[in-house]
UniProtKB/TrEMBL annotation:
Transmembrane segments: none annotated. Residues 4-139 form the PPC domain. InterPro entries: PPC_dom. It comes from the Eukaryota. This is PPC domain-containing protein. CDD domains: DUF296 (cd11378).
Length: 145
């Protein structure tokens, strides 16, 4: 656990056809952010691939491919090189679905994202044998130059 840090805030807007995760990772790389996270996100998507809650590293058959228009109700998570993002989407009837973002978040009309960064920290991932997934490691940015 880390102590108090300064916070920087960034905002960006994506347009039709852009892939959300790819665009976020490019933004993070271009800005050289070390401990970025999603503060808020609204917009719409045409497509998404999600892993559902009861999937494990050893049982990945709980992946769904969505190919219809959705509103983004929420997007949260960290944005290091191996991002850990969860999303909640609502369909044309207001029914929601959510899960761990795998890929294919294609923007329908627009996506507006506000990104925060914890100055002085660095987010990385290391494999955790207990979970079978690469898990978040938080360090001082001066520790991992």
């Amino acid at each position: 656990m880390a102590g108090p840090t300064a916070l920087a805030v960034y905002a960006l807007r994506l347009g039709p056809g852009e892939e959300l995760v790819t665009s976020l990772l490019k933004f993070v790389e271009d800005k050289k952010l070390k401990a970025p996270f999603v503060m808020t996100c609204v917009g719409s998507l045409n497509r998404a691939t999600l892993r559902l809650a009861n999937a494990t590293a050893w049982n990945t058959n709980k992946i769904i491919h969505l190919n219809e228009r959705f509103e983004i109700v929420s997007l949260v998570g960290t944005l290091n090189k191996a991002p850990h993002l969860h999303i909640c989407l609502s369909d044309k009837d207001g029914k929601t679905v959510g899960g761990h973002v795998i890929s294919d978040l294609e923007v329908f009309t627009t996506v507006e994202v506000v990104i925060g960064e914890c100055a002085g920290l660095q987010f990385t991932r290391e494999m955790d044998d207990r979970t079978g997934f690469p898990e978040l490691v938080i360090s001082s940015s001066s520790e991992k130059a």
